[in-house]
Structure formats: structure tokens, C-alpha cells
Design goal:
Keywords: Lyase, Nickel. It holds the Pfam family Ni_insertion. InterPro entries: Ni_insertion. Belongs to the LarC family. With about 450 residues, the protein is α+β, with helices and mostly antiparallel strands. The chain has three domains: about 240 residues, no CATH class; about 80 residues, 2-Layer Sandwich (Alpha-Beta Plaits), CATH 3.30.70; about 60 residues, Roll (Ubiquitin-like (UB roll)), CATH 3.10.20. Helix content is about 30%, strand content about 30%. The protein has 13 helices and 21 strands. Strands 12-7-1-14-13 form a five-stranded mixed sheet. The chain is globular, with a radius of gyration of 23 Å. It starts with a strand and ends with a helix.
């Protein structure tokens, strides 16, 4: 049985997009993967990668530049970057850095409104890029998570949200490059420590708020967070959204044989506080556990094979199908594991719909609020269930219609299911004007060969 490849994020100094990119690179990711992803966006942006010291810890810092060639960005002086987010971003030859973890001047989340991009614009930009389908899907999902939080805070539909901080070039690059790095590493399962959000206050476009800022706080809803050591903002909306997209298991580092360790640097360098994100990559280590008995494989509800999930459920007989579809899409964007709409007959013979949302327990509070706010129900049922899942991983097969991801399910080390990713197949079928089922069959055949 192939060992599970896992990764653990130590968020003792928070997390931001540039810190995550630095940690990926420091842990051994080929920089060409990030450079190629940035180039594919056609945003006239480049990355500068450098070694820096953070309270004695050697780490990798990533800067995003606009209007420079790769060669020019490699020679640009990081000392001249905009440390103050209120600086004039129309200067195209200054590097762009994540709005968090700055040194020097006090920072603000407010940006020029020329940087505002709608979710639809960002989605189209990513879709048009020459990137693998899996990378596009992760990047778009991350922006949808951001959009859902912003929409909730401002009480407007998600498609009307215009991103300012996270709609700027640097944040788009951070998210898309991170998505490329995530898929290049081919991690089977992500884990994370609780998240240090920092402390103090932060100046946003709509006033001064205690840390974490509103969008960040919403994205972190239900996740284990704490405030310690430093009175600065340590988690950005981009960092929080990437964590949501990764959907890690939170807690202490699991038993693992660590192969690579990377440190991604934030911009600040406070005294006696290493402002870094640590990433450990290796293989899950089960050698300390006793060998399983035969009953282990017969009993599918053995605690080591199951996990707890939360089920949210309500029946509706007075709600527009359009709103039901919107709620379903939003729930998935906010991290729901699955959403089901079942026709039911309710009291007085009324036809209705049973809305069932399956989610991780940590995501339950946010999804409860979504249901109560967006639907006509006055209450919902909540229960904890256990589920048993086959181990799964992806591989990429090459077909006449392009590269297609194939999901492989294994049970006790034996292959039990093969399924081409639907979105990859649909995109290929549309591009080549062939039947969808032909692409699916071709992908399975390529894998079996």
C-alpha cells in the first residue's frame, strides 16, 4: 500500500498568501511552477523570490511585481517596495506585497477602487488562463469563499461583490500561484495547527476593526483560532481563504515521517517573534499502531475508519427554486461537503423540498446562518453522523482531448473505484466538440493502460 503523503501547516504566526507561497518554495517546490502560473494569467506580473531572516530563521520571501520582466524583478530592490498600503499603486514598477505583515508604516486594507474586480471578472480571468483544470478549480473556489464572506458582511448578492484588497493583481497572483503549488505537491491530506490571528486593530475601507478584520473573521468562523504574542494582524483574507480551500484537519502534528520543511516569511520582522509560516511535508507514519485485526476490515464502523460529520436539514414548501439553487451553490462555496435537494410531500399535501447539507463540524455555524438567513425556514435539524470514506488520490492521464484528472478510490490498499473528474471532462468535451461520455470513456481507458 502506497504511504499517504501529508502536509502540516504551523500557523503560530498566522498565514497570508505570500507566506504560503514562500513556505511551498522553501519546502522544495520548483519555482518554475509558480512563474508559469503567473505568466499564464497575462496580468503583466512577475514574482521575486529571495532568502530573508526572520528573528534568526532563514526563510523564503515572495514579492509580486507589476510591469516588470522576470529578469527585472530578480534585480529589483525590495527595500523600495510599498510598505504602506495607502501608497499610490499606479506606480507600475514597484513590487506588490500582501497587505498584511508589513513593517514601518501603519497599514490599511483600503485600496484604490481601480483595483476593484467582480467575482465574475476574476472567474473569467482564471478560466481564460492556460492552467490545468484542477488549478483553475481551486483558485476559483478560493475566490468564491472570499466572495461569500464579503457578500455576507455587506448583505449583497455574491455576484455584486467587487473585490478591492483581494481583487488587486498581487492577491490574484497569490491565490492562483498557491493553487498551482498545491496541486504540484500532490498532497493526499492537509493538516494544520490552530491559527494565531494576532491582536490589536486594523484599518479597513469601512473603518477600524479589532483583529481579525471582518472578512477574515468570517472565513475563520468555526476554525480553531487564538490571539497571542503580538499586537498585529497575522491572518489575511487571502490566507484564511486558502486554509478554507485546503480544508485541513486541525490539531497537533500527526504521526509522520517529515521529508521537507519550509519557512515562508511575512514582511514584518518583529524582535523575538519569527514571522514565518512553517510547512512540513512527508509520509503518514502508522508504525506506532498495532497491526489491525481481521475484524478491523469487517467492521466498517471501526473508529479508525470513520469520521464525524454534521448534517443540517430543513424542509421548505414556500421558497423559490431559484433561491434554493443559490443557497446550494453558496453552501458549497462555504465549505459544505455535499448539498442535497429532495422532493417531499409536506403537511396539507403541499409539495416541498428537503434541504440537506453535509459539512465538517467546524463549518456548521456558518452554514446554519446561511440557511436561516437565506431561506424561509424558522428552524433546522442538526445531527452528528459518522461516515466511512475510501482513501482517494488523483492522477493525471493524457488523452487526445488533453490532460484529465482521474480520482482513484482505494479500500484497505485495494483499488475500488476509478472516476474521471467531471469538470475536466466537460471542459475537454466543450473544447473539442465531442460527446462528454466519449471523453470520460477515453480517460478511463488511458488510465487502465
Amino acid at each position: 500500500m502506497t504511504p499517504m503523503r501529508i502536509a502540516y501547516l504551523d500557523c503560530f504566526a498566522g498565514i497570508s498568501g505570500d507566506m504560503f507561497l514562500g513556505a511551498l518554495l522553501d519546502a522544495g517546490l520548483d519555482p518554475a511552477i509558480l512563474h508559469e502560473a503567473v505568466t499564464a494569467l497575462n496580468l503583466n506580473a512577475t514574482l521575486k523570490i529571495e532568502r530573508v531572516d526572520r528573528s534568526g530563521i532563514s526563510s523564503t520571501k515572495v514579492h509580486v511585481y507589476e510591469g516588470l520582466s522576470l529578469a527585472e524583478s530578480n534585480t529589483a530592490d525590495p527595500a523600495h517596495r510599498h510598505e504602506n498600503e495607502e501608497a499610490d499603486h499606479s506606480h507600475q514598477h514597484h513590487p506588490k506585497t500582501q497587505h498584511q505583515h508589513k513593517t514601518g508604516h501603519p497599514h490599511t486594507h483600503e485600496r484604490e477602487h481601480t483595483h476593484g474586480r467582480s467575482l465574475a471578472v476574476i472567474r473569467d480571468l482564471i478560466t481564460a488562463a492556460s492552467l490545468p483544470p484542477a488549478v483553475k478549480q481551486t483558485a476559483i473556489h478560493t475566490f468564491e469563499l472570499l466572495g461569500a464572506s464579503e457578500a455576507k458582511i455587506h448583505n449583497v448578492p455574491i455576484e455584486k461583490i467587487h473585490f478591492h484588497e483581494v481583487g488587486a493583481v498581487d492577491a490574484i497572483v497569490d491565490i492562483v500561484a498557491s493553487a498551482a503549488g498545491i496541486h504540484a505537491l500532490a498532497i493526499d491530506k492537509w493538516f494544520s495547527s490552530p491559527i494565531n490571528v494576532g491582536g490589536g486593530t486594523v484599518d479597513c475601507a469601512h473603518g477600524r476593526f479589532p483583529v481579525p478584520a471582518p472578512a477574515t473573521a468570517d472565513l475563520l468562523r468555526g476554525l480553531p483560532t487564538y490571539s497571542a504574542h503580538i499586537e498585529k494582524e497575522l491572518v489575511t483574507p487571502t490566507g484564511a481563504a486558502l486554509l478554507r480551500a485546503l480544508a485541513p484537519t486541525f490539531g497537533p502534528q500527526p504521526a509522520m515521517r517529515v521529508e521537507h520543511i519550509g519557512y515562508g516569511a511575512g514582511t514584518r520582522n518583529p524582535k523575538d517573534f519569527p514571522n514565518v509560516l512553517r510547512l512540513s511535508i512527508g509520509e503518514a507514519d502508522n508504525s506506532t499502531h498495532a497491526a489491525p485485526s481481521p475484524e478491523h476490515f469487517l467492521n466498517k464502523h471501526h473508529p479508525h475508519d470513520s469520521e464525524t460529520v454534521t448534517v443540517l436539514e430543513t424542509a421548505l414548501d414556500d421558497l423559490s427554486p431559484q433561491i434554493l439553487a443559490y443557497v446550494s451553490e453558496t453552501a458549497l462555496a462555504q465549505g459544505a461537503l455535499d448539498v442535497m435537494l429532495t422532493p417531499v410531500i409536506m403537511k396539507k399535501g403541499r409539495p416541498g423540498t428537503l434541504l440537506t447539507i453535509l459539512c465538517n463540524p467546524s463549518d456548521s455555524p456558518a452554514l446554519q446562518q446561511l440557511i436561516l438567513r437565506e431561506t424561509s425556514t424558522l428552524g433546522l435539524r442538526i445531527r452528528q453522523d459518522t461516515r466511512v470514506c475510501a482513501d482517494r488520490h488523483h492522477t493525471i492521464v493524457t488523452t487526445p482531448y488533453g490532460d484529465i484528472r482521474v480520482k482513484i478510490g482505494t479500500l484497505n490498499g485495494e483499488q475500488c473505484n476509478i472516476a474521471p473528474e467531471f469538470e475536466d471532462c466537460r471542459a475537454a468535451a466543450t473544447k473539442h466538440n465531442v460527446p462528454l461520455k466519449l471523453v470520460q470513456q477515453t480517460a478511463i481507458a488511458a488510465y487502465l493502460k
